[in-house]
């Protein structure tokens, strides 16, 4: 299919509407000459509750360009070749992620959420290609890299990546020199986190799977790039591996909390290549069967 346009770029809000209800929708799948779906001023897209496939998506910079995604999965399987973008959402648009998931399956391209204000809820990569951030990106829920590479560097800019929830990596996450903040991070077998040379901040833990804030599979790869890992949840945090007895090497490691908290190494040996900083209120310990080397 070709391009779907909603709105004429000059009309009042809700002049043109596409309401999807709970239907399965496909708009511009595989289309590259333009955006698969573009919402202009005066246009309203209401996603509903079905799974959607879009070639690409652009919501223009006006409050009367209104887009509510499905509360299920929106799959983006292509890009507008001339701009190399799969997703563009402007801050001035009226955008609602509906607590759904955006899944990127297409070619190497960029995603742009202006000023990180119109946030995706969950973001998934399942592609053999590389997706670049074209802006600072803040994700309300989870980031899942099933396959492919997500990199924070584009052109000459190292964009910030903030994920409130859990991050699961089976492909590759490349942090470059960006500010990286993640709720929790699991590097699975075959997965790679090439860490930022700045600071990777881990703010929470994964309560649905092992209560770990960080977990490295013995078949996964962590490259620290002389950067810092900061575990700063105001409460307990656990750092571990699976299966047991891996050695994890951080360059700089800092542990902080504003309230009394336990930060513990579990099921692994820990090596800190440079500085280890344990803040006030933190009880940092290791299980009796694991080693701490600095």
Concise synopsis of the structure shown:
By secondary structure, this protein is mostly beta strands.
Using the alpha-carbon principal axes, give the shape.
elongated
Q: Biggest sheet, in brief? A: 25 strands, parallel
| N→C terminal distance | 58 Å
Radius of gyration: 21 Å
Number of helices: 0
Give the number of DSSP strands: 34
Mean pLDDT: 95
Descriptive notes:
- The chain is an all-beta fold.
- The chain is built from no helices and 34 strands.
- The chain has strands spanning 4-6, 16-19, 25-27, 37-39, 43-46, 52-54, 57-59, 66-68, 73-76, 85-89, 94-96, 101-104, 109-113, 122-133, 137-139, 143-151, 153-154, 157-158, 161-169, 172-174, 180-187, 192-194, 199-202, 214-217, 221-223, 228-231, 237-242, 246-250, 252-255, 261-266, 268-272, 276-278, 282-286, 292-293.
- The strands form 4 sheets. It has a 25-stranded parallel beta sheet that branches. The protein has a 4-stranded parallel beta sheet with strand order 2-5-8-11, with no helix packed on it.
- A hairpin with a 2-residue loop joins β17 and β18 (157-158).
- It is elongated.
- The model has no long low-confidence stretch (mean pLDDT 95).
């Amino acid at each position: 299919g070709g391009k779907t346009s909603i709105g004429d770029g000059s009309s009042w809000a809700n002049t043109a509407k596409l309401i999807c209800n709970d239907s399965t929708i496909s708009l511009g799948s595989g289309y590259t000459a333009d955006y698969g779906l573009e919402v202009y001023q005066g246009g309203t897209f209401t996603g509903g509750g079905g799974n959607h496939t879009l070639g690409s998506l652009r919501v223009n910079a006006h409050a009367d360009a209104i887009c509510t995604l499905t509360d299920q999965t929106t799959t983006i399987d292509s890009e507008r070749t001339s701009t190399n973008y799969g997703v563009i959402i402007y801050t001035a648009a009226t955008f609602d992620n509906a607590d759904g998931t955006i899944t990127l399956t297409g070619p190497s391209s960029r995603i742009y959420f202006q000023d990180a204000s119109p946030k995706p809820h969950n973001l998934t990569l399942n592609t053999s290609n590389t997706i670049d951030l074209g802006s600072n990106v803040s994700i309300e829920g989870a980031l899942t890299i099933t396959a492919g590479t997500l990199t924070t560097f584009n052109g000459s800019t190292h964009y910030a990546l903030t994920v409130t929830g859990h991050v699961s990596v089976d492909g590759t996450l490349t942090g470059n020199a960006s500010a990286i903040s993640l709720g929790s991070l699991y590097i699975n077998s075959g997965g790679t986190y090439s860490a930022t040379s700045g600071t990777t901040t881990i703010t929470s833990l994964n309560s649905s799977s092992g209560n770990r804030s960080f977990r490295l599979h013995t078949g996964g790869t962590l490259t620290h790039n002389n950067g810092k890992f900061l575990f700063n949840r105001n409460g307990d945090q656990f750092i571990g591996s699976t299966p047991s007895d891996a050695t994890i090497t951080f360059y700089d490691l800092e542990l902080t909390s504003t309230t009394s908290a336990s930060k513990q190494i579990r099921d692994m040996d820990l090596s800190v290549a440079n500085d280890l900083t344990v803040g006030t209120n933190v009880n940092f310990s290791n299980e009796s069967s694991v080693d701490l080397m600095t």
